[in-house]
Design brief:
By secondary structure, the chain is of the alpha/beta class. It folds into 2 domains: 178 residues, NAD(P)-binding Rossmann-like Domain (Rossmann fold); 156 residues, N-(1-d-carboxylethyl)-l-norvaline Dehydrogenase, domain 2. Helices cover 53% and strands 11% of the residues. The chain has an 8-stranded mixed sheet with strand order 3-2-1-4-5-6-7-8, with helices on both faces. The longest helix is centred in the middle third of the chain and has 24 residues. The protein is globular and about 60 Å long. The chain binds nicotinamide-adenine-dinucleotide and SN-glycerol-3-phosphate. SN-glycerol-3-phosphate binds next to helix 8, helix 10 and helix 11. The site of SN-glycerol-3-phosphate (G3P) has 14 residues, from helix 8, helix 10 and helix 11. GO terms for molecular function: glycerol-3-phosphate dehydrogenase (NAD+) activity; glycerol-3-phosphate dehydrogenase (NADP+) activity; NAD binding. Keywords: Cytoplasm, Lipid biosynthesis, Lipid metabolism, NAD, NADP, Nucleotide-binding, Oxidoreductase, Phospholipid biosynthesis, Phospholipid metabolism.
Length: 346
């Protein structure tokens, strides 16, 4: 049994805390809101983020970060991307020993284009951990909290650290793989949210399964193009954290990104949609980051570009679909064949 702190008591932090508690670990679930931590301990539920789910007795909620991380062997960061730097700076003040550090956050920072592990490396004192581990894959909190079969991948530059995280989480309901391709695993998890917004918009506009299948596969081509330019192994995008997560996020009614896109497709304005959601929709900031990055590196990402225009330039979704459908004619696998051939000859 290990003492583990899960930082971020939203839907995903709570679901991961439940898995750890099911595996008999002593789990400290940290919320930055005092009332929220108190309510979790009082009601044994997280009403706001996972309504109706009974929490196992092995979970205790904390508001004081120093108390939450006292004597823990492992810290799992599960706050939204935009809160990662702030939480790491707070951790520097309260952690006094080396721990295993993992994160379950899916995003890229606009402006810096940093992945979450890179943001952590910039903010957290390197005395406190060896190499960050990312835990990612097709996994909605709602299903994990109901103990439905789910798969994840733990990846790190230090595979021993990834294996420690695999050990902590693996059980009969949650199968955890490992991967050495941290860049590919982080980028697959972050970039699929852009395409899920697009899939939601497509459904909101009333388009059918053909359109969604096209978005998923051409979206995967964009993810692989940008991802390999950032150093990922293209094969990672065919795995759980690539196509697997793309499928679940584009097709599940649980997806926050799909839901937000669906409302946009039905004509709602972005600010109203985000207020209505009440949970993080990571794809919005990631679209901004990927769009900036694609422009600066001259990478062709037409779906991401269309999404950017809908989200930030008030373009009409239907016009964007028309533009995507009437682009210059292309050979389907042209650039991806080149990427794979380069990789094979490396
Ligand atoms: N929900 C899922 O099914 C799921 C699955 C896999 C990965 N993720 C990823 O996990 C991350 C968290 O998502 P979520 O769905 O749990 O979000 P959420 O909106 O359900 O919860 C976010 C939590 O972070 C807290 N938070 C917000 N700002 C904070 C700050 N500045 N400091 C500390 N805490 C802060 C909120 O109070 C809340 O408790 C995202 O990157 C998401 O993509 C989510
Ligand atoms: O609900 P979403 O859209 O934030 O997606 C959650 C997970 O990333 C799905 O694997």
């Amino acid at each position: 049994m290990e003492k583990v702190a899960v930082l971020g008591a939203g839907s995903w932090g709570t679901a991961l805390a439940m898995v750890l508690a099911d595996n008999q670990h002593d789990v400290r679930l940290w919320s930055h809101k005092k009332d929220h931590a108190a309510a979790i301990n009082d009601t044994r539920q997280n009403e706001r983020y996972l309504p109706g789910v009974q929490l196992p007795s092995g979970i205790t909620a904390f508001h004081d970060l120093a108390e939450a991380v006292q004597d823990v062997s492992t810290v799992i960061l599960v706050v939204p991307t935009k809160a990662i730097r702030d939480v790491c700076r707070q951790l520097n003040k309260v952690l006094d020993r080396k721990i295993t550090l993992a994160h379950g956050t899916k995003g890229i920072e606009p402006g810096s284009f940093k992945r979450v592990s890179e943001m952590i490396d910039e903010e957290l004192s390197n005395q406190l951990y060896d190499k960050v581990v990312v835990l990612s894959g097709p996994s909605h909190a709602e299903e994990v909290s109901q103990r439905q079969p789910t798969t994840l991948t733990a990846s790190s530059e230090n595979l021993e650290e990834a294996k420690k995280v695999q050990d902590l989480f693996i059980n009969g309901n949650l199968r955890v793989y490992t991967s050495p391709d941290m860049i590919g695993v982080e980028l697959g998890g972050a970039l699929k949210n852009i395409i899920a917004l697009g899939a939601g918009i497509s459904d909101g506009l009333g388009y059918g399964d053909n359109a969604k299948a096209a978005l998923i596969t051409r979206g995967l081509a964009e993810i692989a193009r940008l991802g390999t330019s950032m150093g990922a192994n293209p094969l990672t995008f065919l795995g759980l954290t690539g196509v697997g997560d793309l499928i679940v996020t584009c097709t599940s009614v649980h997806s926050r990104n799909w839901k937000a896109g669906n409302l946009l497709g039905k004509g709602k304005k972005l600010d109203d949609v985000l207020e209505h959601m009440g949970m993080v929709v990571e794809g919005v900031r990631t679209t901004q980051a990927a769009h900036q990055l694609a422009e600066s590196q001259e990478i062709d990402m037409p779906i991401t570009d269309g999404l950017f225009r809908i989200l930030f330039e008030d373009a009409a979704p239907r016009d964007v679909v028309d533009q995507l459908m009437t682009r210059v004619r292309r050979q389907e696998m042209e650039d991806l064949s080149a990427i794979l051939n380069n990789r094979i000859s490396d």
